[in-house]
Amino acid sequence: GFDDIPDEEKIKIARDFIMAAPPGEFKEVVNDVRVLLSNDTLLTKASSCFHDYATEQFTTVSVAGEDCLVTKAGSLDGAKSFYEPKNSRSFTYNYLKNEASNVEDVPRDNAAEGWRSAVEKELVGYLTEVYPNHVTGVFGKVTDGEVILDICIEDHQYNPNNFWNGKWRSSWQVSCSTDGGFGKITGTIKVQVHYYEDGNVQLISSKDESDSVQMTDAAEGAKNIVEFIKKEKSTDCDSALIPLLR
Fold first, then answer.
1. What is the DSSP string of 34-53?
2. pLDDT in tens, 181-236
3. Cβ-count burial of 141 within 10 angstroms (0-12 exposed, 13-18 middle, 19+ buried)?
4. CA–CA dist 106, 48 (Å, integer)
5. Taking each helix axis from N to C terminus, what angle separates 26-37 and 50-57, rounded to the nearest 10 degrees?
6. Nearest to 191 by CA among 118, 240, 157
């Protein structure tokens, strides 16, 4: 039986269960895993995957009253410390309580801010129309004369009373010279739906995209980036979830 399995194998099984937790059901799965293990020391070791799960899912958390995303792009230490780019704040994240603490203002990368804020502003109108409950994080930095933008978008609908939960998310990375010109954009769109009335079914769909975009300046670049995202969103990848989000 399970008790005869070596501890390292139990930890691996526990991590696999946690990483497969459907949207909105992380805490419930962790509780089930805790019962399965019956050993909090093993659960603590398995919890090393919490960071990977939360950042992969673009988990939302309230930071000083404003919804923000937990993302790899915003991870400051690979553990519990994260960056929120809109207001340039750091925070400590509690995975099980889904709470942010130790919120502090931190300096921005001002060299990238013009590009970053232009994309953030351009996204608002489009996302408000298509995903009313969206949460977005736009991160920017300049490295070796190149602007790097990470764009993270999430929207979800959790409806446990009707036995389903769903999440749409996309991530995009844009790189271009600080002097402008053509930039490269790569991204992934992911849809995940869990239906568990009279059964247990998960739909997981993803699509990767890449192209070049004209970025003569921040305003034009932001417009072209959002147009590309808008075009790529209009795919079959969305069809399973978009009706649920409205």
1. HHHH--HHHHHHHGGGHHHH
2. 999 999 999 999 999 998 899 999 999 999 999 999 999 999 999 999 998 765 54
3. middle
4. 27
5. 160
6. 240
